[in-house]
Write a structure and sequence with these properties.
The structure is a single chain. This protein is an all-alpha fold. Helices cover 77% and strands 0% of the residues. Helix 3 packs parallel to helix 6 and helix 5 runs antiparallel to helix 6.
């Protein structure tokens, strides 16, 4: 029993108090402990999922050698929002299970942005990419991240950045939604990525309430649910249009 206790408490899944409540007092339906365990499991599940949440997007851009349909301003705002949450949570010493996916999402989104810069709208488009600019972008992001996670950035500034996430998330997703609406297509956006972000944000509302109790962080994730929900709706709305587009491209390749 002591070995089990050591594993569960060190992993952060249960507190020593909750372990005693569940395993010694046999109060397995204790509401407070159940909420904590569910929150931890959801948190680690989100982090595990975040390891590959942007992978379909990266593969889609690389496979098509094009960033067409992806709004670069929207991507940059998204990177800022993710990085602000990461830095704010890290510096406030929130549990890793409450924010860990921000680390992996930030890195993956930076790669998406670099690929969009690298490929542009494709080799046959007048808006071609630039490899040097893509490398510079990644270097600047790495420097920005190091400053925010280090002691140089004041906590008050990080709080302002986190609070700014609410309007910035709405702005970022509005820009992408407008691009989708004008094109009547979601372009190179990945459905898997979009829906994982949407459902992940829903789960994060619960885990943030449970593990951080931070109003600003909860507000950010509620905003994220709304904003990602709009893009997810557009993904369903323009699904047939994107399918027809893909068929046309396959026919063109066969003829060529």
């Amino acid at each position: 029993m002591e070995h089990l206790k050591s594993i569960l408490t060190k992993s952060g899944l249960v507190t020593e108090e909750c372990f005693a409540t569940i395993f010694y007092d046999y109060d397995i339906l204790n509401t407070s402990c159940l909420k904590g365990i569910i929150s931890k499991c959801l948190g680690y599940g989100i982090i595990a999922g975040s390891l590959m949440v942007k992978l379909p997007q990266i593969i889609k851009i690389s496979g098509n050698k094009s960033g067409k349909g992806i709004n670069m301003l929207s991507i940059c705002l998204e990177i800022f929002c993710i990085t602000a949450t990461m830095a704010y949570s890290f510096r406030n010493e929130f549990p890793f299970s409450a924010w860990g996916e921000s680390l992996f999402l930030g890195l993956q989104t930076a790669i998406v942005a670099a690929l969009v810069i690298f490929y542009g709208e494709g080799p046959t488009s007048p808006n071609k990419g630039n490899g040097y600019s893509a490398i510079c972008f990644l270097a600047i992001y790495a420097l920005f991240l190091a400053i925010l996670l280090g002691p140089l950035a004041p906590l008050q500034a990080l709080w302002v950045m986190q609070a700014a996430n609410v309007p910035l998330i709405l702005l970022a997703k509005s820009i992408q939604a407008k691009s989708n609406f004008q094109a009547k297509s979601t372009g190179q956006l990945s459905a898997i990525t979009i829906f994982m972000l949407f459902f992940g944000a829903i789960a994060r509302v619960f885990t943030s309430i449970q593990e951080t109790g931070d109003f600003t962080t909860v507000a950010v994730y509620i905003t994220s649910v709304i904003a990602n929900g709009v893009i997810a709706f557009q993904m369903l709305l323009y699904w047939n249009a994107d399918s027809k587009d893909a068929k046309k491209k396959r026919k063109t390749k066969k003829l060529a």
